[in-house]
């Protein structure tokens, strides 16, 4: 059975994985204050670098929006027209976006199998979810069976995503982070740690420190609360214009875990808008 995997564009997937894993990406959208619109549809480094530059000099951030039902419907239809017999859709956490709800609603219009998963995650960790999905499908499981295994693994805490941001105002302006006492106000010189909870899929600030080196140690300590030292893991490092940051995290992780596979990626337009240039972090899959 031919299974198409769909992944929304917030997954920050490495460019070469799109073809390798037979992925169709579902673009989210941005609207700048002057009304200019653009799609989160590129994984080209030069395009993303230009976007980071525009973010840095813009007084006001663009707003972001999920794909419309019509856009998702067209992608489903094309997959079936191309000969795929079923679709597995992996969506950004419902704690952050409504994309899952729209994808699920449209799926119910079809009489062919479409299984939609709320990953309860965002950014590059969802690329590891997609990689795991393709492994399961290659073992002979169908879309629904694969989706249910992924949901179980997500609930068990097998997938983790942590980041530090140096421009917390991007998160507050974008409205995609829980605002609680101690994390609002003037944080211009502070690095804030963010963790996506696997129970709720909410993006939570968990600690603030001064200096990037402390921020990198902060992320390591946070992941050690969830995944014991010496565990076998897959890692995807991800950044928004902070390659030095992920290089330092790479070394810390290599000294802490048995890494089966490690890769790097860049944050796309949607995620970069909400966290800001200077962000670095990683997604980790606990192989067990």
TrEMBL record:
PANTHER family to which the protein is assigned, alphabetical: DEGV DOMAIN-CONTAINING PROTEIN DR_1986-RELATED (PTHR33434), FATTY ACID-BINDING PROTEIN TM_1468 (PTHR33434:SF2)
SUPFAM superfamilies, sorted: DAK1/DegV-like
Magnesium keyword on record: no
Keyword Coiled coil: no
Gene3D superfamilies: 3.30.1180.10, 3.40.50.10170
Alphabetized InterPro entries for the sequence: DegV (IPR003797), DegV_C (IPR043168), DegV_domain_contain (IPR050270)
Protein name: DegV family protein
Keyword annotations: Lipid-binding
GO molecular function, one term: lipid binding
Source domain of life: Bacteria
